[in-house]
């Protein structure tokens, strides 16, 4: 339940319903008709998504992008990139949807074994009708036994949550600067060899099983990265 409440709070933040500060725990308890413990767990999720700044004795303040920022990719949110982008949602055009077996390159990229059967989804995604990125995603069929052409037209992670109860546990993200090869350059309508940012991600279940890995090539202008960390004092 607390995850659903956290998602509701995030939507309220993104829509500016909560412009500067979250309501008090008591107010949120009344709104969602749940216990203080449930509200605190929900707020913890929102905090880990990099959307809150905690001030002792004052409450939870909303973290806003810098005033001159137009498009911010929030890497703290985790595996559902559709919700990571301020100014969304993203819309998709499916380029490829099929099944493949993991070769050596894919096995290494996804931390899986060679020969694992995968669903492959390649999509062009748009933000406000402007090309945003090229996303190449893979889903092991041992975890996701069935996907339909319709399920990859919208948020795949909504489908995974509703069909299989997959919410994800941890995500590993790696950012690279790469040059576009001929195939990707053609899809993105960019010159061959142009430099772009590539985000490689691996998503795990709570037991450490990989349920998705992907590479995303960004071409949207003025894209900014944001990442939220909680400092830990390692001194005695």
Question: Roughly how much helix do the residues carry, as a percent range?
Answer: 10-25%
Q: Under CATH, the topology of the largest domain is which?
A: Chorismate lyase
- Identify the CATH homologous superfamily of the largest domain: Chorismate lyase-like
Total number of domains: 2
| Spatial extent as radius of gyration | 19 Å
Largest sheet: 6 strands, antiparallel
Question: Under the CATH scheme, which class of the largest domain?
Answer: Alpha Beta
Largest sheet: spatial strand order = 4-5-6-9-8-7
Q: Beta fraction of the residues?
A: 25-35%
Average pLDDT reading? 87
Assembly context of the chains: single chain
The count of DSSP E runs of length 2 or more, i.e. the number of strands, is: 10
Number of helices: 6
What low-confidence regions span 5 or more consecutive residues with pLDDT below 50?
none
Report the principal-axis shape: globular
Decide which structural class fits the backbone.
alpha+beta
CATH architecture of the largest domain: 3-Layer(aba) Sandwich
Textual characterization of the structure:
The chain has 236 residues and is an alpha+beta fold. The protein folds into 2 domains: 1-62, Arc Repressor Mutant, subunit A; 71-226, 3-Layer(aba) Sandwich (Chorismate lyase). The chain is 24% helix and 33% strand. It contains 6 helices and 10 strands, in the order αααββββαββαβαβββ. It has helices spanning 2-14, 25-32, 36-48, 104-110, 156-164, 182-188; strands at 52-55, 59-62, 71-74, 91-101, 117-127, 130-140, 170-179, 195-204, 210-218, 223-226. Strands 4-5-6-9-8-7 form a 6-stranded antiparallel beta sheet, covered by helices on one side. It has a two-stranded antiparallel sheet with strand order 1-2. It has a two-stranded parallel ribbon with strand order 3-10. α1 packs across α3. The longest helix is centred in the first third of the chain and has 13 residues, at 2-14. The mean pLDDT is 87.
